[in-house]
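In this supplementary section we document a worked example of the pipeline. Step one takes a protein sequence of length 387 as its only input; no multiple sequence alignment statistics are reported here. Step two produces a three-dimensional model, which step three serialises into structure tokens for compact storage. The input and output of this example are shown verbatim.
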Amino acid sequence: MAEKYPITTWMPVYEDARRVLRVLEGVRLSNWQSMNKSINDKWKSPEFKGIWKTPHEYIPVVISLEDQELAHRIWHETKVLPHYAFNTVELAQNNCLGVFDGDCFSLTATGQQFLKCDDSTLEKIDCYEGILVILSEVADKSPGTENDFLTEFRGWLHSHSTFSPKNSGLVAQRYRLINLRRRGLIEKKSKYSITDAGLEYLRRVGSFNDKERPTLEEEVNRNNTSARQQLGEFLQTMQPYAFEHLIKRLLEAMGYDNVEVTSVTNDKGVDVVGDIELGISRVREVIQVKRQQANVGRVVLDSLRGSLHRFDAVRATIVSTGKFSKTAKAAAFDKGAAPITLIDGERLLDLLMEHDIGIRRREIRVFEFDPESLSEFEDDAVLPPSG
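The serialised model returned by step three reads:
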């Protein structure tokens, strides 16, 4: 049976952890405990709900005066929220990076190597914390969702760590996925995929028994990236009216009914209309299509809202091959105004590929030798009598 040990639940990003460790070096244990007690005592209080993302607001009212200097240092020197700094201390204690020696926090020799981004130190932490398990799962199942990786990670978690068997491991996995993304070892569009850097890292640490498998997965990822890029380039060159019909096809695939492309000469800024079921109601929606690379601004949203009554619609969507300005994003869900969904170029490509529009899926069958499945025949074999 594998030895069980504590792991870091809310796994910090390593670059954040390094900044926090530098600030904590030399901090008194009593000061650290007092600051965290002030936060924990008020964490679930309704009085302080909604202020935890603004340290300049909560530090003066939540944390005692003698501990405010430490909280301000953590925030201003690391940009890590003070109530998240305990993640780094947990990581340090679990992996022997630092300890409260006597009355002050001090880094160990391993901790000093961690600050220097020593490869062997990072590999040991990744192994200890189960990060390599998740990275290997992403490599095996790219592109995949969190649930695709959770079964394997949960099995590792419950057999190697002191996590309660009742704990699903979803939070622990999510923070490790963030860690891997920030390090450039995986990426996420609509789903998670391993990067070339992630594959190279797995080869180096020896997580793959089959050295040829990463090559195949790397080729598949490269092919999928190329197909996505070609689709995006094609959209930019489509005739505008043909592009509107493409969006009509997409909406139908997404479950819209009675979808129609409006008249070119009398669309009032509306290119496509359709009905969509929301709960127990069916509502009319108008869609404006923008085949452009420039950002779509707020004036487009305001104009579209003004056209809703002409189509008896209650909501709207803007589909663009480009992006949206900050003011447009802020205005999309103005209070008291009809909601407007914004679909930018990257999200549009996600939807087209999800519904097999403009791309063709090809199944690749990979065979692996499975000697265990043949063992039953050896067990049943009877040798002929001798002589």
